[in-house]
Design a protein that fits this description.
Blueprint (H helix, E strand, L loop, with lengths): L1 H11 L5 H7 L4 H45 L5 H9 L6 E3 L5 E4 L4 E3 L9 H11 L11 H13 L10 H9 L7 H17 L2 H11 L1 E4 L5 E3 L1 H9 L8 H9 L4 H4 L13 H16 L5 H9 L21 H21 L4 H6 L1 H17 L3 E4 L3 H13 L6 E7 L4 E7 L2 E8 L5 E5 L24 H11 L8 E4 L15 E2 L2 E4 H6 L3 H12 L6 H7 L6 H5 L14 H8 L7 E2 L5 E5 L5 E4 L5 E2 L3 H16 L18 E6 L5 E7 L3 E8 L14 H19 L17 E6 L7 E5 L2 E5 L3 E6 L16 H12 L7 E5 L14 E8 L1 H7 L4 H8 L6 E3 L23 E3 L49 E2 L2 E2 L8
Parallel strand pairs: 1-6, 3-5
Antiparallel strand pairs: 1-2, 4-5, 6-15, 7-8, 9-10, 9-20, 11-13, 12-25, 14-17, 15-16, 18-19, 19-20, 21-24, 22-23, 25-26, 27-28, 29-30
Length: 942
């Protein structure tokens, strides 16, 4: 080391000293100064040489380390994987069901016929090696200049566009990597090539190259791969029959097959073949220079008229396009996932590339080509027996009327006759894993190629209520299952929501009944309370459920009824609903489990990333509440058609305005099945479904569930319902108020609230008695309630209907509604009982006394979720003035506008109502209930 240091110093200081120059130049100043300049320049030159040497060593070290780091990020295939891809490669991807049953083999976009070793003549081998890699039989797969060029490319920013790759490297690029000209791909290519050279013979490598190389098009206009295919498709000969000019022509094609190919897309011969012939002459010259042919043969081959040997054009056989809901779904998703892997392999961020549309499309194109040219394996979560069963059921079902019209097609500038059929999108998701087990993209692919399970976005209607409104309200301890919610005429700015068919119940309703019967006003009142609480981030919760809604959408109270800007897909809706039977966690829905490259190496595997949205306690309470949708609510017709035990079935219906969209989400402990019905509404149409379409959809859902259960009962996990968590309170509360009994003060009077009790489930202890017990009630509403309980004759509990009068801020809200039929609603009878004294008096037109006893309701409720087994009979007596008019006309009293609702939303200039009706109770099951909440034998409260 010391000697090296001394030699470097000696090298840097070589030359005469300044003193010597001065002594020799005493008589001439010019000689002295010129000597100094010379000495300086010489030493500077020596320094530059030394710096360059050190820089070269640093560059080599840096480049080698960097290249090694790249390779470590890109695992090199094993020997068996290399052998599989080199000698047994498929020409296109294969798609699989969950149990490895084949869905389809992607039809390759090339024609390929592989040649055996015995078919490859020495003439062919010599032509290829002389042209593409004259050192093929000498090197070890990589030429050193290739590595240097790749590193310099990264450092200087100049792309790797030049040639110089060995045949082995070209084979790697064709069989293992993409054609992207990036330095990362180039370095990886070199290491692959080196490993191939170590374990495979030159003959194997050359044969594999000749079988994988592209050769342009044949006389049918088809893309051809492999030298055997080229010989047959261009000259109509076997390899052994090719003469020297023909071999030279074919050997020159792989460098730029699209430029040199003699045929066009239609199979006709190009008029201008100058470039192709020049390329053929280059091949001949290199063979001559390499000593493979004589000068005589070289000159004769150059003069040979090849054009006369080209096959005459032929018409390609027409192939049926591969398509179908499942095939298209898997191919589209597989292409995007593969494109993302290609981006990552190039060391780029997927999010950054997606912002550049053109660049991202290039990766999508590359991924598409790979799937059509190389043997990738895409494995899905779709179970073949379930999928085929679902297709059969959906196709057999009857949906509704076809709609025929004559429309102008702007793409063809012609008037066309169109017929739209009622469409369906359905999906089956495993609650715990998010795996899509089966789906229906539509009724008939021939009629509509749109995948209605994944690619259409429609208003969710009331199916949004469980996870947007009631679940968060329970989670944040706003309500129990029996909390009273107001269902009275209410104006939020210019937004006046109503229940089914423009009606209003005009009473307080328990959360349980409001959800099971899908009343709209209670949901809007509850959502208004949630969205105005600054401590609650509903938007974040919805994102965890996979639903990305804008800030403006959350500010619109109509969102509580499904009023979104763009809507949800069936898969989105099903996934969000599935959390209730997954302990409040949402598993990302997916249908591609993994992707393997042609060598069998897994390059993509779905990773579980469940999002916790609700607590286990909230999930349990929602299960109990949503079960009553099936047994006593809008989906009660299901119970008479299901062929399995529905004791743990939960569900929620949904209907958008004017029956535009019909939904049902149904879950067992194992799976969620969601079904949507509606028209595609092409050409700007606004077709609506029949009024009985909800029952049609429920019937379809039942048929699907029954068929799937018959095929595989285990996926339903019917007996796996969770037990009540310790965080869930189970309290006895008053059925009419949702609170504990007690004395309250209202309008100067002390009133003892008592009566029938029911079971409430919540995350907190039961609330104490309070005069204003409900959510969303105004002073007018409470006056109506307390007067009614005292026996005053009024319209409390009578169904009101919107009159259709023009909405005006100056107009009293009561003037917009009238009693629907003059009688108390059936649900109100169930709420208080037909034998209740107040009910009898209000319907017998008897006068009401100012001194009244407000007694208990002992009548068992039938189907509203408000009844119970409490038989107490306490009472209170009070003398009080009337708080509301006793006239028989509805909504005739005047009131201050401030007494309506304090939670006014932004103005919405239309009366928005979700067409969600209360189905008749057709429950024929033998389930028991306590207070119309599913029986639970656990402790009363933690």
């Amino acid at each position: 080391m010391k000697n090296l240091k001394e030699k470097i110093i000696e090298f840097l200081t070589a030359g005469p000293e300044v003193k010597t120059l001065q002594s020799k130049s005493d008589e001439s100043q010019w000689k002295f100064y010129s000597g100094i300049v010379y000495l300086t320049l010489r030493r500077v030159f020596h320094y530059l040489i030394l710096i360059a040497v050190f820089g070269l060593f640093l560059l080599i070290g840096f480049g080698g380390g960097y290249a090694l780091g790249i390779v470590r990020q890109q695992p090199i295939p094993t020997i068996s994987e290399l052998n599989q891809q080199i000698n047994h490669a498929q020409n296109s991807a294969t798609l699989y069901y969950a149990a490895n049953e084949k869905i389809a083999t992607v039809r390759p976009d090339t024609v390929t016929k592989k040649a055996s070793e015995s078919e490859l003549t020495p003439l062919v081998k010599n032509a290829v090696t002389a042209t593409e890699d004259e050192n093929f039989y000498i090197h070890k797969g990589v030429l050193p200049k290739s590595l240097v060029r790749a590193v310099l490319s990264e450092l200087t920013g100049v792309g790797v566009q030049t040639g110089g790759s060995t045949l082995t490297q070209q084979l790697v690029k064709m069989q293992f990597l993409t054609s992207q000209t990036t330095w990362r791909r180039k370095v990886t290519e070199m290491f692959y090539a080196h490993k191939i050279e170590k374990h495979f013979s030159k003959e194997d490598i050359l044969r594999s190259y000749l079988n994988a190389a592209p050769y342009g098009k044949n006389n049918r206009g088809e893309n051809i791969v492999g030298i055997k295919t080229a010989a047959q498709g261009i000259f109509g000969k076997s390899i052994s029959e090719l003469n020297l000019p023909q071999v030279a022509f074919i050997a020159g094609l792989p460098q730029s097959p699209s430029v040199y190919t003699p045929y066009r897309l239609n199979g006709k011969i190009k008029k201008d073949l100058d470039l192709a012939m020049r390329r053929k002459d280059i091949v001949l010259f290199r063979m001559y220079r390499n000593g493979d042919i004589s000068k005589k043969d070289y000159l004769a081959a150059k003069k040979y008229d090849l054009r006369a040997d080209f096959l005459a054009p032929e018409k390609a056989s027409k192939q049926k396009k591969q398509s179908g809901y499942l095939y298209n779904l898997v191919m589209n998703k597989g292409t995007s996932l593969l494109a993302e892997k290609l981006i990552e392999q190039d060391g780029l961020k997927v999010s950054d590339v997606k912002q550049d549309t053109n660049r991202y499309n290039q990766y999508l194109t590359s991924a598409t080509e790979l799937l059509h040219q190389k043997g990738y394996h895409i494995k899905t979560t779709i179970r073949q027996p379930l999928y085929q069963t679902m297709q059969r059921i959906v196709k057999q079902n009857k949906y509704g009327q076809d709609k025929t019209s004559r429309d102008f097609d702007s793409s063809t500038n012609k008037w066309v006759n169109t017929t739209e059929h009622v469409e369906n999108g359905s999906v089956v998701i495993d609650n715990a894993t998010g795996k899509v087990l089966a789906f229906s993209g539509g009724v008939d692919f021939k009629n509509s190629q749109i995948n209605h399970a994944f690619d259409t976005y429609r208003s969710p209607g009331s199916s949004i209520k469980p996870y947007l409104v009631y679940g968060p309200a329970i989670e944040h301890k706003f309500i129990s299952s029996q909390t009273a919610l107001a269902d009275f005429p209410t104006r939020f700015g210019n937004y006046i929501p109503t229940d089914y068919n423009s009606t209003v119940e005009n009473r307080f309703i328990s959360a349980q009944e409001a959800l099971s019967k899908s009343y709209n006003l209670p949901a809007v009142n509850l959502y208004s309370k949630l969205v105005n609480d600054k401590n609650i981030n509903l938007r974040q919760d919805m994102k965890k459920l996979g639903l990305n809604l804008s800030k403006s959408e959350f500010e619109n109270l109509g969102l509580a009824l499904g009023g979104t800007d763009y809507g949800f897909s069936v898969a989105d809706n099903a996934s969000a609903f599935s959390n209730f039977y997954n302990n409040g966690k949402r598993a990302d829905p997916h249908y591609i489990e993994e992707i393997q490259d042609p060598s069998g190496r897994v390059i993509y595997k779905h990773k579980q990333n469940p999002q916790k949205v609700f607590s286990t306690g909230t999930s349990y309470i929602m299960q109990k509440m949503l079960h009553q949708v099936v047994t006593k609510g809008t989906a009660s017709s299901l119970t008479g058609t299901l062929k399995f035990n529905y004791k743990n079935l939960i569900g929620k219906t949904g209907t958008s305005n004017d029956y535009r969209d019909i939904w049902f989400n149904g879950s067992t402990p194992g799976i969620t099945i969601s079904s949507w019905m509606g028209y595609d509404n092409f050409y700007g149409h606004s077709y609506n479904l029949d009024s009985n379409s909800s029952e049609t959809n429920l019937s379809l859902w039942a048929n699907i569930a029954n068929a799937l259960y018959e095929e595989d009962p285990s996926i339903f996990k019917l007996n796996d319902a969770p037990s009540r968590p310790s965080s869930v309170y189970k309290n006895k509360v008053l059925a009419r108020t949702g609170t504990m009994p007690g004395t309250v003060s209202y309008d100067g009077d002390n009133i003892e609230l008592s009566g029938k009790k029911t079971t409430a489930l919540s995350l907190s202890s039961a609330p104490a008695a309070t005069a204003r017990f409900g959510i969303g009630g105004s002073t007018k509403d409470y006056n109506l309630f307390y007067d009614y309980l005292e026996g005053k004759k009024n319209d409390y509990g009578k169904v009101l209907i919107y009159t259709g009068k023009t909405i005006s801020k100056k107009k009293n809200i009561n003037s917009l509604f009238a009693v629907a039929d003059g009688s108390t609603s059936e649900d109100a009878k169930n709420y208080y009982g037909k034998n209740h004294e107040v009910y009898r008096e209000s319907n017998n037109n008897s006068s009401s006394s100012t001194n009244r006893t407000v007694g208990a309701n002992d009548q068992q409720a039938r189907s509203t979720g408000q009844g119970g087994n409490g038989n107490g009979s306490s009472s209170s007596t009070s003398t009080r003035r009337s708080r509301s008019s006793s006239t028989t006309e509805s909504s005739s009293s005047t009131e201050n506008s401030n007494s309506e609702s304090n939670n006014a939303a932004n103005d919405v200039n239309s009366n928005i109502s979700s067409n969600e009706g209360s189905a008749a109770n057709t429950n024929t099951g033998s389930e028991t209930s306590e207070g119309n909440t599913a029986t639970d034998s656990g402790p009363t409260a933690p």
